[in-house]
Amino acid sequence: MLIVACIKQVPDTTQVQIDPVTNTLIRDGIPFIVNPYDTHALEEALRLKDRFGCRVAAISMGPPNAEATLKKALALGVDHAILLSDRVFGGADTLATSNVLSAAIRKLHSDVDEVGLVLCGKQTIDGDTAQVGPGIASRLGYQQLTLVDRIVDLNFSGKIIRVSRKLEGRHEIVEAPLPAMLTVVRELNRPRYPKVPMRLAAAKATVEVWNNQVLKLDEQKIGLKGSPTWVSKIFSPDRAVGEILGDGFADPEGTAEMLIEKLLAKDMLPI
Amino acid sequence: MTPNPTIFTPLLIASLAVFAWGCWKRLSLISLGKPENRFDNIGARVGEMLMYAFGQKRVLAKPFGINHFIIFWSFIILLIANIEFILHGVFPWISLTKLPDGILLPLLLLLDIVSLLALAAVVVAAVRRVISPPYPEARTIEAFFILSLIGLLMLAYFGINAAKISRMQEGALAIAKTWMPVSSVVSGMFAPAAGATVYSISWWAHAFALLAFMCYLPHSKHMHILTAIPNCFFRRLEKPNTLQREDFIIGNTFGVGQVDRYSWKDLLDSFSCTECGRCQKVCPASITGKPLNPRAVIHDIKVNLLENGSLLKKNEKSLIPLIGEQGEGSVSEESIWGCTTCGACMEACPVFIEQMPKILQMRRHLVETDARFPEELLSLFENMEGRSNPWGIAPSERTKWCAQIDVKTFDKNSTEYLLYVGCAGSFDSRNKLVTLALTQLLDKAGISWGILGKDEKCCGDSLRRLGNELVFDKMAKENVQIFKEKGIKKVITQCPHCFTTLKNDYRQYGLELEVIHHSELLRNLIQDGLLKLPYLAAGMGQMVYHDSCYLGRHNDVYEAPREVISLATGQKPHEMRRHHEKSFCCGAGGGRMWMEEHSGDRINLVRVKEALEEKPDTICVSCPYCMTMFEDGLKDVQAGATRVKDIAEVVAEGFRPD
Questions:
Q1: Are A15 and B394 inside 8 Å of each other by CB?
Q2: pLDDT (tens digit, 9 = 90+) per residue, A114-142?
Q3: pLDDT tens-digit profile of B105-123?
Q4: Same domain, B389 and B351
Q5: Do B511 and B448 lie in a common domain?
Q6: B346 lies in the same domain as B403
Q7: Do B363 and B382 belong together in one domain?
Q8: Residue B626 lies in a domain
Q9: Chain A residues contacting B, CB < 8 Å?
Q10: pLDDT for the residue numbered A271
Q11: Residue B522 Cα to chain centre, angstroms
Q12: Are residues A171 and A117 part of one domain?
């Protein structure tokens, strides 16, 4: 049985600024991180490996430097790390991305082992669409279980999974047959920290790269050409300038009163 | 009245064999340790040994130290008598009496008095153990047994001499009264006719005590009689304020998770501990009721070595894990994480056992080999590696503290000092005020200074003390390269953690910097007249000064901050109950700043309450971590008007009319 974790290299968004002219992210000198939600997907895959002894593959689509992300996965203990990288994959929207990732999962299924589960983060912190995971499930015809915060039960031989989904104000327990695609939330687990010997080995390891000569996808369905959506504008919203009310050091009570009045006037305090 | 060599000699040979076998069995285990060079600078080592082992300098630092000093020197002097006793027992014709009177008589007087002193010291030690032991567990049968043996030895010595005196003629008796006063008094306690019996009983009691002591010694904590002197000789000559680097090569092991991965000196340390408990009485974790006890850590390492030694010699798996919850012989993870690396234990140890590095080596094992650590540290490790600061704030915000003021970036050709602001000084809102105060003072003094700006990164202190050596190593290399490229030679820091890391840890990476803590710099500037304070900062009221561990104990900077306070306020700061090298940690060092305090009393509250005993208006600190711990603590105890100020803020007050 093989579990596939889809991970993405994203810019550390706390450090990203937007170029006001081109409306694109300024990525120069910005460090990349593994998409935080994906680290939880990866961790769950590794926990299932510890529990069931299955194998784990981490896949990532991205430029050649996304190899670093997969090396992190190797340091944590995945068995296969595959980078899906080709110029023709570039400029992809969520549809084109899910096409490439699905093709890779199919190939893993036929070349390595039967795929039982695909795990993705609930969304990436750069695009925030939350569409790629469900897209993969649709392409592959897998069950899709989104926003998973707990795997309640998993039976590979009986091909059944039961999970808890974290919804607003409630939880939902859902059962589905395998193979299934799960998108996960942070509450699912606490990611492990890499051990030094594993890190050293991962640094020396080579990450397998699959380009389109390997996947042999129709170029109309991938990359920019296969992307029906495009970003017309990206911008930082203007933030309203704050106002300093009174002097909290000299007159804390009066200032607090002033604040409450303001909030009441703006109808921002429920009474 | 001669001893019986035919009985004594075989007993002696058997005892010597037991003694030698015991010593060999234990001390040969030291060879399991990894190599470490402690043979450099022999001259200095001999000096240290004379001062601390023979001079007992640290032993004497505590009230009962004088007691140990007496017993120690009695043992050394009485060696003469005991060697004579043994030789006389085997070869009855050997005797001190063969010496000329000019030497013999003063020697007898010395031995007589020293024996009495030793007996008194042993009684004091026994009474102390009953009434008020150094720590409750010190009331062991072992301790009373050994004290009894020493006492018996002394009593028997008097018995032997008294018996001899009881049979003396007039003239000899008068000489004996002068030169063996104690034994003479004892001789008056029995009839001269009983002399022969007293002699035999005393002689065999003496023989028994001596031989029993010999057999027992290597199997007990009294092994320190043999190991403490070499331990002082092999002590780390420079301050043990840093750890050795690790080589990150595939196949290496990282940290210490098995006792034979310690160095031979670490293992010698474990045999040198006499369990006096001075370390645990100064350890902030032990005092506040946490599982860590530095004495127990050293004891557990010894027990682990004794239990596993023979297996490890044969390259077999150890029986008891070094790190675990198995009780004696294992050190619990909670103990390992409890250490604030304040160094108080090492400062207190009379024989220079290095407790802190051993604990940090176990942390390395936990982090690097097992990736097991308190969960709070996960985000710290990731923040440090990803964003080079403990909070995970965007690095682009590092220079926000100086957005409103004009600050120059360090320039190789025109700047003298680098102001290494540090993470707390750059990001923490309270400590940013300290940075601003300091920069004003530097400008007023006309110092040429600059910052690294966007090139400044975290020094990595917390990572090193928490055992995350791989990431520390990476950060240290990056920083060293930046410092070298920019030609930085002189650095000002306001954080003792940056201070020690840049000064002591980076030296291992080939970077020799002149690092000056702002308290030292401000002291120099005021004393040299470069920084003239127009006013006395008297408005700060009564002030106490809290020593930062990494400034004081780890780097011996005690007076500079106090002098700054005196110069700025016109008054010497008050001292807390514990100060200078005996100062008590704020609780934040060793990465504890980033961890929860789950058990016992909170260390910062203990220290805050101690400060408040002096009824201060201002508590003065010289470290951003201490600042945070005191600010938090004062809020918790609702201390009213008492404030915490950094040394730079105190000086800055001198520019403000009251």
A1: yes
A2: 999 999 999 999 888 999 999 999 999 99
A3: 999 999 999 999 999 999 9
A4: no
A5: yes
A6: no
A7: no
A8: yes
A9: 12, 14-15, 31, 33, 190-197, 199-201, 204
A10: 64
A11: 30
A12: yes
Contact residues on chain A for B395, CB-CB shorter than 8 A:
15
- Interatomic CA distance for residues B346 and B231, integer angstroms: 13
Radius of gyration for the alpha carbons in chain B, expressed in angstroms and rounded:
30
Q: What part of B 451-470 touches A (C-beta under 8 Å)?
A: 470
How far apart (Å, rounded) are the C-alpha atoms in residues B205 and B162?
A: 14
Q: Which residues are registered as beta bridge partners of A64?
A: none
Write out the two tokens for B382. Answer: 């990731």
| Domain containing residue A148 | 2-221
Q: How far is CA B591 from the centre of its chain?
A: 19
CB B307 within 8 A of CB B338: no
Q: How confident is the model at residue A240 (pLDDT cuts 50, 70, 90)?
A: confident
Query: Domain range spanning residue B331?
Result: 259-369
Q: Across the interface, do B371 and A194 touch by the CB < 8 Å criterion?
A: yes
For the four alpha carbons of A195, A200, A203 and A208, in that order, the dihedral sign comes to negative
A&B contacts, CB < 8 Å: 42
Residue A230 placed within a domain:
no
Cβ neighbours of B394 in A, within 8 Å: 12, 14-15
pLDDT in tens, B208-255: 999 999 999 998 888 999 999 999 999 999 999 999 999 999 999 999
CA distance A176 to chain B (A): 33
d(CA B250, CA B12): 53
The token pair at B331 is 């050190």
CA distance B248 to chain A (A): 7
Q: Tell which residue, B436, B503, B508, B437, has the closest CA to residue B469.
A: B508
Let me know whether A141 and A263 are in one domain. Answer: no
Q: Are strands A115-121 and A2-6 parallel, antiparallel or unpaired?
A: parallel
Let me know if B225 is exposed, middle or buried by CB neighbors in 10 A (0-12, 13-18, 19+): middle
**pLDDT score of B453 more than 60:** yes
- Minimum CA–CA partner of B251 in chain A: A197
Mean residue pLDDT of chain A comes to: 92
Q: Could you tell me the CA-to-CA distances from B455 to B410, B420, B496, B557 in Å, in that order?
A: 10, 11, 21, 29
Supply the pLDDT for residue A232: 81
Closest CA to A56 of A109, A5, A103: A5
Q: Can you tell me whether residue B434 is helix, strand or coil?
A: helix
Do residues A155 and A260 share a domain? no
Which residues fall within 8 angstroms of residue B35, CB to CB, at 6 or more apart? B263, B264
CATH number for the domain harbouring residue A22: 3.40.50.620
Q: Is B76 on the interface with A (CB under 8 A)?
A: no
Residue B246 located in a structural domain: no
pLDDT tens readout for residues B518-573: 999 999 999 999 999 999 888 889 999 999 999 999 999 999 999 999 999 999 99
What are A10's strand-pairing partners? A33
At B92 the three-state DSSP class reads coil
| B372: closest CA of chain A, how far (Å) | 8
Number of structural domains in chain A: 2
CA distance A36 to chain B (A): 11
How many other C-beta atoms can be found within 10 angstroms of the C-beta atom of residue B526?
Answer: 21
- Chain B: nearest CA to A237, how far in angstroms? 19
Mutate to test the interface with A, among B393, B470, B478 (most CBs of A within 10 A): B470
Statement to judge: residues B546 and B601 lie in one domain: yes
Q: Which B positions 42-61 lie with beta carbon below 8 A of chain A?
A: none
Distance linking the first and last C-alpha atoms of chain A: 57
CB contact under 8 A, B248 and A33: no
Q: Are residues B631 and B572 in the same domain?
A: yes
Backbone dihedral angles phi then psi of residue B546, each to the nearest 5 degrees: -105, 125
Its pTM stands at 0.92
pLDDT at A266: 85
Instruction: Verify that A109 and A73 share a domain, yes or no.
Output: yes
Report the number of distinct structural domains present in chain B.
3
